[in-house]
Predict the structure.
Amino acid sequence: MQVSEKDVEQLAFLSRLDLTAEDKAVYTKSLNAILDYLAMLKKLDTAAVEPAAHVLPIKNVFREDKLRQSLDREQVLANAAEVGEGAFVVPRIV
Amino acid sequence: MSRYEAVIGLEVHVELKTETKIFCGCSTEFGQAPNTQVCPVCLGLPGSTGVLNKKVAELAARAGLALNCKIGAYTWFDRKNYYYPDLPKGFQISQVFRPIAYQGYLDIEVDGREKRINITRAHIEEDPGKLIHASGSIMTSRSSFVDYNRSGMPLIEIVSEPELRSGAEAKAYLEKLKAILEYTGVSDVKMEQGSLRCDANVSVRPVGTAALGTKTEIKNMNSFRAVQRAIECEVDRQIDVLEEGDSVVQETRAWDENKGITMSMRNKENPDYRCFIEQEVSPIELSDEWIKDLRATIPELPDARRKRLVAEHGLPDYDAGVITSSLALAEFFDATLEKFPEAKKISNWIMGELLRLLNARGMELSQSKITPAGLASLLELIEKGSISNKIGKEVFETMFEEGQEPAQIVKEKGLSQISDEGQLTRIIAEVIAKNPKSVEDFQAGKEKAIGFLVGQVMKATRGQANPGVVNTMLREKLAE
């Protein structure tokens, strides 16, 4: 699989990254190098292998349904660019 | 007969009944001040890692079992990436690839016809935060306020197959789903508090064809009735579009309750969520043993309870259906029946007075003051002839509002049935004297006239006379 510069543009848009023309060329090349490398895996016969859901062999790590203290609202809103009525204020987005 | 048929699938989000959120210990209580149930995990702050609430896995599996689903023995979470201010992490943790429950069904009944609706899947996910728009409308406000109290509330999303064919079927599906989730204690299922939310995918196609038409997704419906109306309205709109030779545009539309129409919200821009497996939350492995234990926690479900009320207590199927549609009503019925043994009489009062008052006041049963013991005592008073059925309704309303004992209400308000024949004889004589025309009609053979005279006596006694007794006494008097 190869990605085009157009794919990289779309990816940058979805990731809210502002890339220069130069960046785009670099990333297109780098991403394709990574994809080529990973393509090796496709040569393996994995028909009998269960998909790996996790990098570590862990499962069922739970917490009990017990209340813990939440943050004070001042702390919650401390990093907000704009605050109003106890809430984060953001530009209207439809 | 329309040349088109509707194809409808529902996506229902249900908030699970836990004390705390899905990945952290913040409270799930409804209606608190904005951003007071929030921690670094809810805010997606760098370095914060959530741990799955065990109860979420159990309730989700229990819901799946109650909906006749297969339960995934090994399932996991995935990240769904998108930018929106209700989602502070930039992704939602959901189950995209391996839902905890899949391939289930539930049975609905519309116009006396049974139909099985298949359920594609039920998966666990976290709720995003809530956006509040300053001037009340998403279209007109300059900025939005974000409240993250809801961020991380545990949800299951239940997706039906597109097998519903009308708004009425969609409503019946939701009612059944709600009842099952209420019975199993999975959720409070309160639409007005947002613990049950429903989106509808709607398309139409010519009758007899198999290919699906272009669908629209309808949002913003605040009641089951609204879901039905919105679907009916959208089906009509799509048929009109096709009849005019245009094509339906795939988009999201919002239901406007006041105008009774759906309106275009945004074109569906084929979202690219770039889903991948969530590595910070561990997979869930449900052993056969665990699934067996969870299955054992599922109580008698609405359909079984309905059949039992018919078989054991001889209730008409319709009554049993209404009573078992809500766990609270079904429990109220059973508790009353323990104290007063006549099932049909209890059912009449539940379906008549109780539901009438609840509907008229827009209340839940738990908000009224009526108790099963209270209703049983009231029915005994009527049975003994201490009060008439009509006065009983008045007493019931007082019990409903104020919660007193029926005997006390009867005593305080002086509502006891007049059984003193002397007093009745005097009133009957007065009524006869005042209504010579009716007396004459009756004596001339007009049977109906007696009804009017009985009514006059009942009026004069403010409903406290026994109508049967009055009827007999009147006839005796008029025959003299």
